[in-house]
Write a structure and sequence with these properties.
The complex is a heterotetramer. By secondary structure, chain B is mainly alpha-helical. Chain B contains 3 helices and no strands. The chains are: A mainly alpha, B mainly alpha, C mainly alpha, D mainly alpha.
């Protein structure tokens, strides 16, 4: 591990962007946001580059903060977190380029919140101190709730409340667990510490207390991902949120849960996971199928996409709970690919909605003829979502399943059935929107095909999805030697 | 010589009497007086412990408490006057403007 | 020469046509089918020439020298798991490559004429090229995931082409049905890969062929792969998508749903035949399923009225024959039949396309008749195809089909039941094919006046492939060096020809003078209720289950528990609110009471030593 | 019997009874005078503990300054009639308060018993103080050496209190803009 000062830049820059946003005129907010986020992405690449190329090498940086309480700003960029940080940098850059009402109403607040969000996401992914992780994990809510609340659709109040409640409920239990863990560490060594490296010394203990702590962590992350019985908040929030918030949630925030499982729960509670592995795998597999069923009957396309998100994250969790280095890597690969795919799908769906007034799935038809290029892009996105071989998702899903199979054949097969239903609902989604006879009355006056920034970005992402579908070694190579 | 714990018992008793006064008296002036009682009780225990520990920190604390008490009663009485002037009462139950 | 070229030519065709299509959408400039079709056809022909080059190279070599491997790049490498992206050409894949590129070229050529009036021919040809690209990946892939790539890719192309006229939601639905049913089979493929990886440790086909597994594992893998094949090759229980797939343009049916894609199941089974031979139980299952499919779909075909549906069921039936061959261990015979079937079934589909083209999208055979005068070339070539599928000597079908029938009795795994059912299927085949032939071309005309007047022979682009395929149907049988010198073979051969002739004669006399619509059994026409059952059970069942889940679990359980949580928060808030009476004294009293309780607790803890303070 | 013990008993009794009177008297004026009693007895207790400087301060600050303030405010507000708030308070409320106080007392007593174990570790023993020249010298040494910063801070507090009091107690500005002679 190399000590590096660059990691703080990943936190300072978005924070700076968040503050400066208040001094930028409204009209140039989009350019400003784009600029800040592109620089941010470039920074991420610059910092992450050595981590990716030098396999197994990570960057580390520790700043003192409240050392007496065991709280330090210890940042760590290793082969696990680097992909999530990269993904969030990329997604943020794309999302901030989207046009929409958030660049017309309360614009300064939007950019400021967006960069605060990036700041807290980066802090959460980088921190290896549990308390700091918790703080940034919670800080993510603030911009998220504001975004849903201010730029969301009309029926948002209740969903925001539930979203907050569920997430807060989970994470507060995690906080208790963190405190208890550091207390246990104190009992053992006489020092308070919430650093992951220190707490890992507790991981070989197998006591009921550890099981309870595991439950606290599990609940927090399972709600965030979300896993089957904890997904109740998701649909309403995704549907009501403005497109950038939806994309952030499904592409990045859900990964925060996955990351939490990989980074903290896995190493801290190996015994607890192993003893509950059957149930966990079953939950993951059931999530896949259950969400697929919900997606099949969904009327609203955005609801369909959000259910499909749950379904795919079920695959990710299947990989995470299978344990083992390869399964972990597979889960990360699938996370990244799911992030890219959901980015494409929600992005394109937003473009379609902008060209339409009504949002019920029945109200669309035959748009492929009207917006051919947009729908070609959407089709490739759909193919990636059903994880057709040759797309990045296939690599992830295949690896996850092949590594989950020796652990639990039954759960793997169950999840595999989800693949079939995935085809059913995604094709339904595409066909309802694109095929059939189009009625011109539904299309807004100034409806043009996708072009400009949208087209460039979408083509770029799709190219990435296909390129990584054949050349995933970048992701796999850097992670095998860990 | 008398045992220090006796002093402490006196301090405790006076403190609790002051507390009772604060709790069930409603006249703000008497409430403030009861607060003074409690402060005095604490001062007494400070001095006692100071003697017990052979240290002078207790005396210093008492000095500071006295200054703070003086300031507090000045401000408190000023508040009472201001309140009385607007509400025409010194009864704490009548003063509920901030509640709703 | 590079092996990659075979694959790349169609890919370039796909890219060029795709971009042309997208550009034309932007500019509004129309692309004629001649333009885009010639690019696509040229790509296929180039690919075919490359394949011929390898064919020549192979024929100069010994049996064991016929192997070319080309490792392109490392695809997925994670820990112990490693899959290369590599192409491998041996005799089997060369044969398939020849069929795909050869028949493919002809069908591309034919499509130029057939899609002349279509609005977006570039899109069509790019899809067609995409299909060939994927299909070539399927047969040239050296590893299971690579085959799976092609396997899913052809499914995708099939989906796109079935629903090519995507303004019609019914056609799109047929495409979706095909895709989903294929995916059901693909699940078997996936799981087979997982098991194979677990027990073999590699997904390279060579390793799989060499592997010796316990009979149990081999059976499971074999069954799963076979399940995948039933999806792709339309066997019981997953065959019902194929008749619906006829919604696509007819050349597509010829290429994808007769000649190439549907035979990939045979290819796959032949590829892993060493594994299958370790599990005789699976072989007998394959044989039984194959022969049952052959028989059942032949029965259904007898009651169809739509010319393409008859051919579709006929394809299912013939595929059943091929599986029967695989099931009795005669993989060679199966592959041989794949080839001959590709010739004559493509021929018949294209002929049917020619007829449909001439009659302006009329597909009901009871509204045709007497077309032999109007469409002489089509008629002539169709008869060749007919003779081939009936197995009349010396047409190609004779050699391949009889080989299968002989093997079904005489092979190590054959038995009487298989033999009799195969023979019965052959009889039915002869019947429905003759029925089709007679009703379309020779019986009195039942067409409407207007249609009849407009009926004309197709242009040369379309008849040329017909003629080429007719010649291939005639001589295709001699391409195979059958070692069959069975003594008993002679009698069976004669028997099967006689059976075919009986069926043909029966149909001929029944339909020769037919001038009204036949009252067919609705139950049989609707596919023996299997499709209806699937629609009822899965088509309605899955949405019903989804609705039920969303209503009972999602709404009542999940959402209500969410509501309960929010209610809990609100309730506890209202309870705690009642403590806020607004009287300072009450707050103080509460402070005292709780402070007292807390202090007692602390003191107790200190006394008991639970909490220790600084010493 | 020691004379100092006697003094302690007297002072303690006065202090406790006086403080009871403070909270039980009906008129604020009598409460205030009871409070004076308590302050005096506390001064005595301080003297008994050897804290002569504190004892003097007690009389100066509390009796001299704070009590005057109280009495002055009572006079200002005209709060000389009998209040009824003791009677108005419900018996239950008073009972619970008393019970709570008694409970707290028992807890305190338990803690007070712990004071027996305290070992004097500080450096200002009686001998040392005598050596320094008395209580006042010792205190000033500590106060102006170790706590001088805090001492200065307190002066700011008092300054703030003065400003606040003036601001609060000042009447509304009645100046109408014209100057009358």
């Amino acid at each position: 591990m190399e000590n590096s000062q660059q990691l703080t830049a990943l936190l300072i820059w978005p924070m700076l962007g968040s503050i400066l946003a208040w001094f930028i005129p409204k009209a140039s907010q989009r350019i400003y946001s784009l600029f800040i986020s592109i620089v941010q992405f470039a920074l991420v690449i610059y910092v992450a580059y050595p981590v990716i190329t030098q396999t197994g090498q990570g960057l580390e940086q520790t700043l003192p903060w409240l050392s007496d309480l065991g709280i330090q700003l210890s940042l760590k960029l290793d082969s696990t977190s680097v992909w999530f940080v990269l993904l969030s940098g990329f997604v943020s850059f794309v999302v901030l380029g989207m046009k929409g009402q958030w660049y017309r109403r309360n614009t300064r607040l939007f950019s400021s919140m967006a960069f605060f969000l990036i700041f807290s996401i980066n802090a959460a992914f980088l921190s290896s101190n549990l308390i700091v992780f918790y703080l940034s994990y919670e800080a993510v809510f603030i911009p998220m709730i504001l975004m849903v609340g201010i730029w969301g659709s009309s029926t948002k109040a209740n969903s925001v409340f539930r979203f907050f409640l569920m997430s807060f409920f989970g994470s507060i239990l995690m906080l208790v667990s963190i405190f208890y863990l550091s207390y246990l560490y104190f009992l053992k060594t006489g020092i308070f510490s919430a650093n992951l490296n220190d707490l890992l010394k507790l991981s070989n203990e197998n006591s009921p207390a550890m099981l309870w702590c595991f439950a606290g962590f599990f609940l927090a992350f399972a709600i965030k991902v979300p896993l089957f019985p904890f997904h109740g908040w998701l649909k309403e929030v995704y549907v009501n949120a403005p497109a950038p918030a939806t994309i952030w949630m499904s592409a990045i925030l859900s990964k925060l849960g996955v990351y939490g499982f990989i980074r903290f729960v896995g190493p801290l509670f190996p015994e607890a996971i192993l003893s509950a592995q059957g149930i966990l795998l079953a939950l993951a597999a059931f999530s896949v199928i259950y969400a697929a069923f919900l997606a099949i009957q969904a009327k609203d396309p955005k609801a369909l996409l959000s259910y499909s998100s749950i379904s795919h994250l079920g695959f990710v969790m299947l990989g995470v709970f299978s344990m083992g280095a390869s399964a972990k890597t597979s889960a990360i690969v699938l996370s990244v690919s799911h992030g890219l795919t959901s980015l494409v799908l929600f992005y394109l769906y937003d473009l379609i909605v902008k060209r339409k007034e009504d949002v019920s799935l029945e109200a669309y038809s035959g748009l492929a003829k009207k917006f051919p290029i947009l729908f070609v892009c959407l089709f490739i996105g759909v193919l990636a979502s059903v994880s057709l071989p040759g797309t990045f998702n296939f690599v992830g899903e295949f690896l996850v399943l092949i590594h989950a199979y020796p652990v639990s054949a039954l759960c793997t097969i169950l999840a595999g059935i989800g693949v079939i239903f995935g085809a059913v609902y995604m094709l339904k989604f595409y066909q309802k929107l694109g095929f059939g006879v189009s009625s011109d009355a539904q299309v807004a006056e100034v409806a043009e095909d996708i072009s400009g920034f949208d087209l460039i970005v979408i083509v770029l992402i799709l190219a990435l999805i296909i390129y990584f579908g054949f050349q995933p070694s970048l992701f796999l190579g850097g992670m095998t030697n860990v | 010589m008398n045992e220090p714990w006796m002093m402490l018992i006196v301090a405790c008793t006076v403190f609790l009497i002051g507390l009772m006064g604060v709790i069930f008296r409603k006249n703000l002036l008497i409430v403030l007086m009861s607060v003074e009682l409690m402060l005095n009780a604490v001062n007494l225990s400070f001095v006692t412990f100071s003697k017990l520990h052979n240290s002078l920190e207790g005396h210093i604390s008492v000095l500071f408490v006295m200054t703070v008490a003086a300031a507090e009663s000045a401000v408190g009485l000023g508040l009472v006057i201001a309140l009385f002037r607007t509400l025409k009462t010194a009864d704490s139950d009548q003063i509920q403007i901030l509640r709703d | 020469m590079n092996l990659l070229l075979i694959v790349l030519f169609p890919f370039f065709g796909f890219m060029i046509n795709g971009f042309m299509q997208l550009r034309s959408l932007k500019t509004g400039h129309k692309i004629s089918s001649k333009q885009s079709g010639s690019i696509a056809t040229f790509a296929m022909v180039l690919s075919f020439i490359t394949a011929i080059y390898y064919f020549i190279q192979f024929s100069g070599q010994q049996e064991d020298g016929r192997l070319i491997e080309q490792n392109l790049f490392s695809w997925i490498k994670l820990g112990a798991f490693h899959v290369d992206f590599s192409l491998r050409l041996d005799s089997l894949s060369l044969l398939f490559t020849m069929i795909i590129t050869g028949v493919g070229s002809l069908i591309h050529l034919y499509s130029i004429g057939y899609m002349k009036e279509d609005e977006t021919p570039a899109k069509y040809f790019s899809y067609l090229n995409l299909f060939c690209f994927m299909m070539l990946n399927l047969v040239l892939g050296a590893t299971m995931p690579h085959i799976f790539l092609g396997w899913e890719g052809v499914g995708l192309a099939s989906y796109l082409l079935i629903g090519y006229w995507n303004q019609d939601t019914a056609k799109v639905g047929a495409g979706q049905k095909a895709f989903v049913m294929n995916r059901i089979g693909d699940l078997g493929f996936l799981i087979a890969m997982f098991i194979a990886y677990k027990y073999v440790g590699s997904l390279d086909l060579v390793d799989l062929q060499k592997a010796t597994l316990s009979p149990k594992i081999a059976s499971v893998v074999g069954l799963l792969v076979f399940f995948a094949c039933t999806g792709k090759s339309a066997q019981i229980p997953l065959f019902t998508w194929l008749p619906d797939a006829m919604a696509g343009p007819t050349p597509v049916s010829a290429l994808i749903h007769a000649a190439t894609m549907v035979t990939s199941g045979i290819y796959l089974l032949t590829r892993i035949s060493p594994l299958l031979l370790q599990a005789p139980d699976v072989l007998s299952v394959i044989a039984m399923v194959g022969v049952t499919t052959a028989f059942v779909s032949a029965v259904i075909a007898c009651a169809q009225k739509d010319i393409k549906k008859i051919l579709a069921y006929s394809t299912v039936s013939q595929l059943g024959f091929m599986f029967l061959a695989c099931g009795v261990g005669a993989f060679d015979a199966g592959v041989f039949h794949v080839m001959t079937h590709a010739f004559f079934k493509a021929l018949m589909f294209l002929g049917a396309g020619s007829v449909i083209h001439a009659l302006h999208e009329e597909q009901n055979i009871f509204k045709m008749g007497g077309l032999s005068r109007k469409l002489p070339i089509t008629t002539f070539t169709f008869v060749m195809g007919w003779a081939a599928i009936l197995g009349l000597p010396p047409f190609s079908g004779f050699f391949s089909k009889d080989e299968i029938i002989i093997q079904s009795l005489h092979s190590q795994y054959g038995n009487q039941i298989l033999f009799i059912m195969a023979l019965a299927s052959a009889l039915l085949t002869a019947f429905y094919m003759t029925r089709l032939l007679v009703l379309v071309f020779f019986s009195p005309s039942r067409m409407e006046k207007e249609t009849e007047e407009h009926a004309h022979e197709s242009p040369l682009v379309m008849t040329l492939p017909l003629i080429a395929l007719a010649i291939l149907s005639l001589v295709g049988g001699f391409m195979h060096h059958s070692e069959g010198g069975h003594e008993e073979g002679q009698s069976i051969m004669i028997a099967s020809v006689v059976v075919a002739l009986i069926g043909a004669a029966f149909a001929f006399f029944r339909y020769r003078k037919f001038d009204k619509e036949e009252m067919t059994n609705q139950f049989v026409e609707k596919g023996l209720g299997i499709d209806v059952f699937y629609n009822k059970f899965f088509g309605n069942g899955v949405p019903l289950l989804a609705k039920g889940l969303s209503k009972w679990i999602e709404e009542y359980f999940i959402q209500n528990s969410m509501k309960f949580c929010t209610w809990m928060v609100e309730f506890s808030g209202s309870v705690l609110k009642s403590f806020q009476v607004g009287s300072m004294q009450v707050y103080l009293l509460m402070m005292v009471v709780f402070g007292l309780a807390f202090m007692i607790w602390i003191l107790e803890s200190v006394m008991q030593g639970v909490i220790f303070y600084g010493k | 019997m020691d004379w100092s013990f006697l003094a302690f008993v007297i002072f303690a009794t006065i202090a406790i009874l006086g403080s009871l009177m403070v909270i039980l008297q009906k008129t604020p004026v009598s409460s205030a005078f009871s409070l004076v009693l308590v302050f005096f007895s506390f001064a005595g207790l301080y003297a008994l503990l050897g804290a002569h400087f504190i004892a003097a301060l007690q009389i100066l600050v509390y009796t001299g300054a704070i009590m005057v303030l109280f009495v002055f405010v009572i006079m200002l507000l005209g709060q000389d009639e009998k209040t009824t708030d003791i009677k108005d308070t419900s018996l239950l409320f008073k009972g619970v308060t008393t019970l709570g106080a008694i409970g707290l007392l028992s807890v305190f007593l338990r803690a007070v018993m712990g004071s027996k174990e305290i070992v004097a570790k500080g450096q200002y023993s009686e001998e040392k103080i005598k050596e320094l020249g008395g209580n006042l010298q010792a205190i000033s040494e500590v106060l102006f050496k170790d706590y001088v910063f805090h001492f200065e801070l307190v002066s700011f507090l008092i300054l703030g209190a003065i400003v606040a009091t003036v601001a609060l107690a000042k009447r509304k500005n009645t100046y109408s803009g014209e100057y009358h002679e």
